[in-house]
Structure formats: C-alpha cells, structure tokens
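User: Teach me something about this protein's shape.
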Amino acid sequence: MPGFKFSSLADASAFRDEHEDHLCPHDDRRQKTVTLFSDAPERVLDQAAVAGHRW
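Assistant: First, the predicted structure itself:
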C-alpha cells in the first residue's frame, strides 16, 4: 500500500478529504503520511506523488 508524506498535516488532510474512497482503513489522520489502497487509480497516485513524497 503506497504511502505519501506531505509537508504539512493540513495538506495531507486536504488530500484525504478529496480522495476518501482510496484511503486504506489504517490511514491515520493524525499523521502527515497518507496511505492509499494499492489499486487506487493512477491519477490519484500521481496527484499524491506531486503533492507529497512517496514513502
């Protein structure tokens, strides 16, 4: 499951709000790292990669 570390918690939270359907159940909103399902659409993975750093 790919994880992406954002520069701020606010940025991570905004991304989560836009892509809730693709978040893993164990994604923790208290963290700057967003964890997505590995079968998330390529466009969502690309947006996460641009906004954050792959973890």
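Now, about its shape. The longest helix spans residues 9-18. The mean pLDDT is 94. If you'd like, I can walk through any region in more detail.
User: That's plenty for now, thanks!
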